[in-house]
Amino acid sequence: MTAPDTAATPAAEIGPVTLTGRLVRLEPLSHDHHDELVEAVQDGRQWELWYTAVPTAEGMAAEIDRRLALQEAGSMVPFATRRLSDGRVIGMTTFMNIDRSVPRVEVGSTWNAASASGTGTNADAKLLLLGHAFEVWGVAAVEFRTDWMNMQSRAAIERLGAKRDGVLRQQAQRNGYVRDTVVYSVVAAEWPAVRKGLEFRVGRRAQK
């Protein structure tokens, strides 16, 4: 993993940062990413999956506005994910629900173009996010949440090495129904082992 493009900062200064790995670069989200994100989200049309909360092409500008407003409020650090092999933006991800008192963050509101699935880009993005959270911000834990019905997302989170904390029944309204939310986390003591697993996965992809 390439070191993040930032000096170490205390948790109180959690904010936008550019993170560069072997397969992807996570860039602070801006309106300049709009057209590339529209192209990426049309790859797979994942907004049509009822158990996801992926923006539509038409709703991308509003989603960028929403994420930037949360960043301004201090509760989110949003990124656009750019694949290094061809320079294309392939999706979005965030640090969210930031609790500076612990400190603790959630990694979420993530989606990627369907064609990026299985290419190692998601693992590299998670390696960058987790590494920055634990090694630069010094968080105690990183949380992940997903819909109980989203088996693909649950499997991906479990492959990271995150442990399931529990299920929040009827916790959030999504697409006209109230979902059960599965909560996972990685705590600081587990990060070295999780990092080794992610580095191995990314390294295999980077060699291809």
Walk me through the structure:
The structure is a single chain. With 208 residues, the protein is α+β, with helices and mostly antiparallel strands. The chain has a single domain, classed as Aminopeptidase, CATH 3.40.630. The protein is 30% helix and 31% strand. The protein has an eight-stranded mixed beta sheet with strand order 1-2-3-4-5-6-8-7, with helices on both faces. A hairpin with a 2-residue loop joins strand 7 and strand 8 (177-187). Helix 3 (121-135) packs antiparallel against helix 5. The longest helix has 16 residues, at 191-206. The two termini are 17 Å apart. The model is unreliable at 1-12 (pLDDT under 50).
Radius of gyration: 16 Å
Work out the helicity level: 25-40%
* Distance from first to last alpha carbon: 17 Å
Question: What number is the mean pLDDT?
Answer: 90
Number of strands: 8
> What is the structural class?
alpha+beta
Largest sheet: 8 strands, mixed
CATH homologous superfamily title = Gcn5-related N-acetyltransferase (GNAT)
Q: CATH class, please? A: Alpha Beta
How many alpha or pi helices? 5
CATH topology: Aminopeptidase
The fraction of residues assigned to DSSP E strands is: 25-35%
Instruction: Point out poorly predicted stretches.
Output: 1-12
Give the second-level CATH assignment, the architecture: 3-Layer(aba) Sandwich
